[in-house]
Design brief:
Elements (H helix, E strand, L loop, with lengths): L2 H4 L2 H6 L3 H42 L5 H10 L6 H23 L4 H24 L2 H29 L8 H57 L2
Helix pairs in contact: 3-7, 3-8, 4-5, 5-6, 5-8, 6-8, 7-8
Protein backbone atom coordinates (compact mmCIF):
# COMPACT_ATOMS: atom_id res chain seq x y z
CA UNK A 1 0.00 0.00 0.00
CA UNK A 2 1.29 3.43 -0.88
CA UNK A 3 0.90 5.33 2.39
CA UNK A 4 1.99 8.67 0.93
CA UNK A 5 -0.67 8.51 -1.73
CA UNK A 6 -3.38 7.40 0.69
CA UNK A 7 -2.54 10.25 3.07
CA UNK A 8 -2.41 12.97 0.42
CA UNK A 9 -4.64 15.98 1.04
CA UNK A 10 -7.00 15.29 -1.86
CA UNK A 11 -7.20 11.58 -1.06
CA UNK A 12 -8.06 12.26 2.57
CA UNK A 13 -10.90 14.57 1.54
CA UNK A 14 -12.37 12.21 -1.06
CA UNK A 15 -12.13 9.21 1.28
CA UNK A 16 -13.58 11.00 4.30
CA UNK A 17 -16.96 10.13 5.75
CA UNK A 18 -19.93 11.77 4.04
CA UNK A 19 -20.76 13.89 7.10
CA UNK A 20 -17.15 15.09 7.30
CA UNK A 21 -17.18 15.90 3.59
CA UNK A 22 -20.36 17.95 4.01
CA UNK A 23 -18.77 19.87 6.88
CA UNK A 24 -15.66 20.49 4.77
CA UNK A 25 -17.82 21.70 1.88
CA UNK A 26 -19.64 24.07 4.24
CA UNK A 27 -16.33 25.43 5.50
CA UNK A 28 -15.08 25.92 1.94
CA UNK A 29 -18.21 27.93 1.11
CA UNK A 30 -17.86 29.98 4.29
CA UNK A 31 -14.19 30.62 3.58
CA UNK A 32 -14.87 31.65 -0.02
CA UNK A 33 -17.64 34.01 1.09
CA UNK A 34 -15.50 35.55 3.81
CA UNK A 35 -12.62 36.15 1.39
CA UNK A 36 -15.07 37.82 -1.00
CA UNK A 37 -16.21 40.14 1.78
CA UNK A 38 -12.63 40.74 2.91
CA UNK A 39 -11.50 41.99 -0.50
CA UNK A 40 -14.66 44.03 -1.12
CA UNK A 41 -14.44 45.63 2.33
CA UNK A 42 -10.74 46.29 1.88
CA UNK A 43 -11.35 48.27 -1.30
CA UNK A 44 -14.42 50.01 0.16
CA UNK A 45 -12.62 51.24 3.27
CA UNK A 46 -9.56 52.26 1.27
CA UNK A 47 -11.75 54.26 -1.10
CA UNK A 48 -13.69 55.85 1.78
CA UNK A 49 -10.46 56.90 3.48
CA UNK A 50 -9.04 58.38 0.27
CA UNK A 51 -12.23 60.29 -0.58
CA UNK A 52 -12.50 61.54 3.00
CA UNK A 53 -8.98 62.96 2.90
CA UNK A 54 -9.65 64.61 -0.47
CA UNK A 55 -12.89 66.20 0.73
CA UNK A 56 -11.31 67.44 3.96
CA UNK A 57 -8.56 69.16 1.96
CA UNK A 58 -11.15 70.78 -0.32
CA UNK A 59 -13.42 71.79 2.54
CA UNK A 60 -10.74 73.32 4.74
CA UNK A 61 -9.20 75.13 1.78
CA UNK A 62 -11.76 77.83 2.49
CA UNK A 63 -13.85 77.69 -0.65
CA UNK A 64 -17.47 78.70 -1.04
CA UNK A 65 -19.77 76.29 0.80
CA UNK A 66 -22.60 76.66 -1.71
CA UNK A 67 -20.26 75.81 -4.60
CA UNK A 68 -18.92 72.84 -2.64
CA UNK A 69 -22.48 71.73 -1.95
CA UNK A 70 -23.38 71.85 -5.63
CA UNK A 71 -20.26 69.88 -6.60
CA UNK A 72 -20.95 67.26 -3.96
CA UNK A 73 -24.47 66.74 -5.27
CA UNK A 74 -23.41 66.16 -8.87
CA UNK A 75 -21.97 62.67 -8.29
CA UNK A 76 -23.16 61.44 -4.91
CA UNK A 77 -22.23 57.81 -5.56
CA UNK A 78 -18.54 58.66 -6.01
CA UNK A 79 -18.28 61.70 -3.78
CA UNK A 80 -17.35 59.80 -0.63
CA UNK A 81 -19.04 59.38 2.76
CA UNK A 82 -17.89 62.68 4.27
CA UNK A 83 -19.04 64.62 1.21
CA UNK A 84 -22.48 63.00 1.51
CA UNK A 85 -22.65 63.92 5.19
CA UNK A 86 -21.76 67.50 4.30
CA UNK A 87 -24.32 67.54 1.50
CA UNK A 88 -27.07 66.31 3.83
CA UNK A 89 -26.29 68.95 6.44
CA UNK A 90 -25.81 71.82 4.01
CA UNK A 91 -28.91 70.91 2.04
CA UNK A 92 -31.07 70.80 5.16
CA UNK A 93 -29.55 74.07 6.38
CA UNK A 94 -30.43 75.82 3.08
CA UNK A 95 -33.97 74.41 3.03
CA UNK A 96 -34.70 75.22 6.67
CA UNK A 97 -33.27 78.70 6.36
CA UNK A 98 -35.37 79.38 3.26
CA UNK A 99 -38.51 78.06 4.97
CA UNK A 100 -38.05 80.28 8.00
CA UNK A 101 -37.11 83.26 5.81
CA UNK A 102 -40.38 82.94 3.92
CA UNK A 103 -42.32 83.00 7.17
CA UNK A 104 -40.25 85.92 8.49
CA UNK A 105 -39.82 84.10 11.80
CA UNK A 106 -36.19 82.97 11.81
CA UNK A 107 -35.35 80.36 14.45
CA UNK A 108 -31.60 79.86 14.34
CA UNK A 109 -31.66 77.02 16.84
CA UNK A 110 -34.26 75.07 14.87
CA UNK A 111 -32.33 75.53 11.62
CA UNK A 112 -29.11 74.28 13.19
CA UNK A 113 -30.90 71.33 14.83
CA UNK A 114 -32.38 70.33 11.47
CA UNK A 115 -28.96 70.45 9.81
CA UNK A 116 -27.40 68.48 12.65
CA UNK A 117 -30.12 65.81 12.53
CA UNK A 118 -29.67 65.48 8.77
CA UNK A 119 -25.93 65.01 9.21
CA UNK A 120 -26.42 62.48 11.98
CA UNK A 121 -28.82 60.49 9.79
CA UNK A 122 -26.36 60.58 6.88
CA UNK A 123 -23.56 59.63 9.26
CA UNK A 124 -25.53 56.59 10.41
CA UNK A 125 -26.22 55.52 6.82
CA UNK A 126 -22.54 55.77 5.96
CA UNK A 127 -21.54 53.80 9.05
CA UNK A 128 -24.08 51.09 8.25
CA UNK A 129 -22.56 50.77 4.77
CA UNK A 130 -19.00 50.63 6.12
CA UNK A 131 -19.90 48.11 8.81
CA UNK A 132 -21.81 45.82 6.47
CA UNK A 133 -20.57 42.19 6.48
CA UNK A 134 -18.32 42.80 9.49
CA UNK A 135 -20.69 40.78 11.66
CA UNK A 136 -20.37 37.90 9.20
CA UNK A 137 -16.57 38.01 9.43
CA UNK A 138 -16.78 38.04 13.21
CA UNK A 139 -19.10 35.03 13.15
CA UNK A 140 -16.78 33.15 10.78
CA UNK A 141 -13.80 33.89 13.00
CA UNK A 142 -15.52 32.57 16.11
CA UNK A 143 -17.67 29.72 14.76
CA UNK A 144 -15.57 28.11 11.98
CA UNK A 145 -13.14 26.33 14.34
CA UNK A 146 -16.08 24.72 16.13
CA UNK A 147 -17.60 23.60 12.84
CA UNK A 148 -14.27 22.07 11.88
CA UNK A 149 -14.00 20.48 15.31
CA UNK A 150 -17.41 18.91 14.81
CA UNK A 151 -16.13 17.29 11.62
CA UNK A 152 -13.01 16.11 13.45
CA UNK A 153 -14.97 14.56 16.30
CA UNK A 154 -17.31 12.84 13.89
CA UNK A 155 -14.41 11.55 11.79
CA UNK A 156 -12.52 10.21 14.81
CA UNK A 157 -15.66 8.51 16.09
CA UNK A 158 -16.13 6.91 12.69
CA UNK A 159 -12.45 5.84 12.59
CA UNK A 160 -12.58 4.15 15.98
CA UNK A 161 -15.90 2.57 15.14
CA UNK A 162 -14.24 1.01 12.09
CA UNK A 163 -11.64 -0.58 14.35
CA UNK A 164 -14.32 -2.83 15.80
CA UNK A 165 -14.06 -4.99 12.69
CA UNK A 166 -10.25 -5.16 12.84
CA UNK A 167 -8.62 -7.87 14.93
CA UNK A 168 -5.38 -5.99 15.46
CA UNK A 169 -5.43 -2.19 15.71
CA UNK A 170 -2.28 -0.67 14.26
CA UNK A 171 -1.18 2.89 13.51
CA UNK A 172 -1.48 2.18 9.79
CA UNK A 173 -5.11 1.17 10.30
CA UNK A 174 -6.19 4.15 12.38
CA UNK A 175 -3.98 6.90 10.88
CA UNK A 176 -6.00 7.53 7.68
CA UNK A 177 -9.25 7.95 9.58
CA UNK A 178 -7.75 10.34 12.11
CA UNK A 179 -5.97 12.30 9.37
CA UNK A 180 -9.24 12.64 7.46
CA UNK A 181 -10.90 13.95 10.59
CA UNK A 182 -8.16 16.45 11.42
CA UNK A 183 -8.42 18.05 7.97
CA UNK A 184 -11.84 19.40 8.99
CA UNK A 185 -10.25 21.31 11.87
CA UNK A 186 -7.49 22.59 9.58
CA UNK A 187 -10.05 23.90 7.09
CA UNK A 188 -12.01 25.48 9.94
CA UNK A 189 -8.89 27.33 11.11
CA UNK A 190 -8.09 28.32 7.52
CA UNK A 191 -11.52 29.95 7.32
CA UNK A 192 -11.44 31.47 10.81
CA UNK A 193 -8.01 33.08 11.05
CA UNK A 194 -8.22 35.44 8.01
CA UNK A 195 -11.79 36.39 8.91
CA UNK A 196 -10.83 37.17 12.51
CA UNK A 197 -7.78 39.22 11.51
CA UNK A 198 -9.77 41.10 8.85
CA UNK A 199 -12.61 41.82 11.28
CA UNK A 200 -10.26 43.37 13.84
CA UNK A 201 -8.47 45.43 11.22
CA UNK A 202 -11.63 46.64 9.51
CA UNK A 203 -13.30 47.46 12.83
CA UNK A 204 -10.33 49.65 13.74
CA UNK A 205 -10.40 51.40 10.36
CA UNK A 206 -14.16 51.99 10.55
CA UNK A 207 -13.86 53.38 14.09
CA UNK A 208 -11.17 55.80 12.93
CA UNK A 209 -13.38 56.98 10.08
CA UNK A 210 -16.31 57.35 12.46
CA UNK A 211 -14.24 59.65 14.68
CA UNK A 212 -13.34 61.79 11.68
CA UNK A 213 -16.98 61.96 10.59
CA UNK A 214 -18.19 62.93 14.06
CA UNK A 215 -15.51 65.59 14.38
CA UNK A 216 -16.53 67.03 11.03
CA UNK A 217 -20.20 67.13 12.05
CA UNK A 218 -19.32 69.14 15.16
CA UNK A 219 -16.96 71.48 13.33
CA UNK A 220 -19.34 72.04 10.45
CA UNK A 221 -22.18 72.70 12.90
CA UNK A 222 -20.10 75.47 14.45
CA UNK A 223 -19.48 76.95 10.99
CA UNK A 224 -23.21 76.91 10.21
CA UNK A 225 -23.94 78.52 13.55
CA UNK A 226 -21.59 81.41 12.75
CA UNK A 227 -23.09 81.80 9.28
CA UNK A 228 -26.66 81.87 10.58
CA UNK A 229 -26.06 84.89 12.80
Amino acid sequence: MNVTQDLSFLSLITNAHLIVQLIMALLFVISLTSWTYIFSKLFAIKSARRLTVEFEKTFWAGGNLHALYQNAGKDRANSGPLARIFEAGMGEFIKSKAAYASSQNMDTGAVLDSARRAMRAAFQREMDALESHLAFLASVGSVSPYIGLLGTVWGIMNAFRGLANVQQATLAAVAPGIAEALIATAIGLFAAIPAFVAYNRFSYDVDRLAIRFESFVEEFSNILQRQSR
